[in-house]
């Protein structure tokens, strides 16, 4: 990994990354992204609060079964017009952000950020922020006022979203909650300050 290099950020910016939408037959490529991570601890939701528990864990890659679980969900999302935004370094897919077009929330004011991943070798170079800002822009284009985020409960991920202005969703969507009950379900108000 190159996380320690002081020149890493500059190298990433100098590199020609290509951003483009993924076609339906490219959805399987999402699992080529290196999702592995050293995790320092985990968040749980306790009532209206987030509780942090240090518990170091080395995640080797995608959890078993996730591909099978999410393949039909992502295919359906793509078929109804979901936004699948990939970042490529040459032919290599190194980041992805997905926003579902399906309205959520009592007034249909929310859209879900379905996926946000940056390949391990490319993290901490502002690509996550760039993908999040692009997802926010897409949700706004659909007229959404909030982005719904079902976040992996790991320390780094929850902190990443909270730094982007996300807060605990007091009323998680029942279907999304049933799908990922251990996730931290967050909302982000699409004001004027989401890194744009
Ligand atoms: C969460 C994730 C998308 C962030 O992407 P990224 O490209 O590393 O993030 P950025 O470089 O844009 O950094 C965003 C912030 O995180 C901080 N950060 C990134 N990597 C960090 C690290 N290893 N240690 C400490 N802080 C880190 C940055 O300093 C920056 O801080 P700021 O908000 O104060 O400016 C990425 O780490 C990832 O894919 N994680 C694993 C998969 C995952 O959990 N995805 C979300 C599924 S819901």
Tell me the layout of helices and strands:
Layout (H helix, E strand, L loop, with lengths): L7 H7 L2 E5 L15 E10 L2 E11 L6 H14 L3 E7 L2 E8 L10 E9 L8 H15 L4 E6 L3 H9 L3 E2 L5 H6 L4 E6 L7
Parallel strand pairs: 6-7
Antiparallel strand pairs: 1-4, 2-3, 4-5, 5-6, 7-9, 8-9
The structure holds coenzyme A (COA).
Number of helices: 5
Mean pLDDT: 93
Please list the strands of the largest sheet in the order they lie side by side: 1-4-5-6-7-9-8
Number of separate structural domains:
1
Instruction: List low-pLDDT spans.
Output: none
The name of the CATH architecture is: 3-Layer(aba) Sandwich
Query: In angstroms, what separates the terminal alpha carbons?
Result: 29 Å
Bound ligands, each once: coenzyme A
Let me know the CATH homologous superfamily.
Gcn5-related N-acetyltransferase (GNAT)
Helix-strand string:
HEEEHEEEHEHEHE
Number of strands: 9
Structural class: alpha+beta
Integer-rounded radius of gyration: 16 Å
The proportion of residues in beta strands is 25-35%
Describe it.
A 7-stranded mixed sheet has the order 1-4-5-6-7-9-8, with helices on one face. It has a single domain (8-189), classed as 3-Layer(aba) Sandwich (Aminopeptidase), CATH 3.40.630.30. With 196 residues, it is of the alpha+beta class. The longest helix is centred in the C-terminal third of the chain and has 15 residues, at 127-141. It has helices at residues 8-14, 66-79, 127-141, 155-163, 174-179, and strands at 17-21, 37-46, 49-59, 83-89, 92-99, 110-118, 146-151, 167-168, 184-189. Strand 6 (110-118), helix 3 (127-141) and strand 7 form a beta-alpha-beta unit. The chain binds coenzyme A (COA).
């Amino acid at each position: 990994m190159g996380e320690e290099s002081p020149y890493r950020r500059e190298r990433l910016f100098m590199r020609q990354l290509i951003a483009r939408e993924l076609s339906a037959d490219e959805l399987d490529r999402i699992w080529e992204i290196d999702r592995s991570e050293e995790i320092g601890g985990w968040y749980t939701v306790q009532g209206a609060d987030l509780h942090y528990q240090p518990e170091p864990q080395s995640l080797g890659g995608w959890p078993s079964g996730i591909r099978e679980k999410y393949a039909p969900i992502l295919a359906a999302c793509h078929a109804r017009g979901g936004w699948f935004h990939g970042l490529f370094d040459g032919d290599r897919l190194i980041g992805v952000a997905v926003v579902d077009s399906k309205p959520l929330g009592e007034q249909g004011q929310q859209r879900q950020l379905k996926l946000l991943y940056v390949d391990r070798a490319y993290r901490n170079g502002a690509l996550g922020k760039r993908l999040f800002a692009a997802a926010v822009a897409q949700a706004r284009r659909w007229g959404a006022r909030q982005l719904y985020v079902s976040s992996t409960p790991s320390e780094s991920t929850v902190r990443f979203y909270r730094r982007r202005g996300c807060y605990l969703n007091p009323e998680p969507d029942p279907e999304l909650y049933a799908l990922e009950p251990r996730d931290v379900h967050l909302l982000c108000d699409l004001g004027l300050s989401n890194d744009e």
